[in-house]
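General statements about sequence and structure are easier to judge against a single worked case. Part of our work consisted of pairing the sequence of a single chain with a tokenised description of its backbone. The amino acid sequence and the backbone structure tokens for this protein are reproduced below.

***
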Amino acid sequence: MMRGGAAFIIMLHHLSGYVSYGKPLDFILNNIGALMATVFFFYSGYGLMYNLKHKEGYMNSFVKRRLPNVIFPYLLANIFYILYQLLTGSFPGIAYYVSEMRKGYTLVPYSWYVIVIILLYCIFYISFKWLKPEKGIILCILLNIIYMLFIYKIGFGEWWYNTCFAFSFGIVFSMYYDKANAFLQKKPVQKFGGFLLLFLMLLVVGKLINQVYVLMLIKSLRAVVFCLCMLYFSMLLQKRILPLEFLGNLSFEIYLYQGFAIGICWEYFNTNILFFTCMTLIATLITSYVMHKVNNKIHIR
């Protein structure tokens, strides 16, 4: 349900780059929507460490079983986009996309997250394949930071690095789950309020500071605090919300195909904000559902 809610907000965040929903909502979508990627990074790190702790020999089959679950659907999405552009006569050529990738742009719109999560999976493998978990965590955090600094140095957009530290936090949270959960359960309302206030403070401070490395530190801390706020929020979801579960099951495909839906709908329905938004959401869900079935059918996922 958390993944589903995050995927929905991310779609609205990307839509707000095309149309305005009013200053208050635009402000929320710009600042909160961009942070929703932390939910996926956190749960990815959490899930990997959970499996490492509970599945014997997990790392032995990691490369063979885990990485293809992400890489193959991503390759399929790239083929999907190329075929669509070839059919419509809008394919600019491989050289164009190679040039764009050097600037941090991808053939599949908004798919930076997929590339980052693949790299983080590799970092996880390097960190825990040969080291005990306690030492592996240190190496994983170090490599996560090195990745962030490297991506900044080569000039990619900040979205490539400003939320991905949540992956390491998810690993740490999962490794020390009992202690972390005990901490969260004590005075949850007061702590939720405290973390929410801290998040808002970091949001404001991030707007005032221009020093790059300090800002990178603040945004990484903000990602961790945001994860904690979302964890407390998830504790309030005592009932199953089926639409969010449905979106959660399609969240990876939504990430891959929302850009396609936005582009198509913007071309035909850009004169009416509400209609454009509704059609984009519908097109995203239909495409994601179909491709999710395709991925499962060919045993990719």
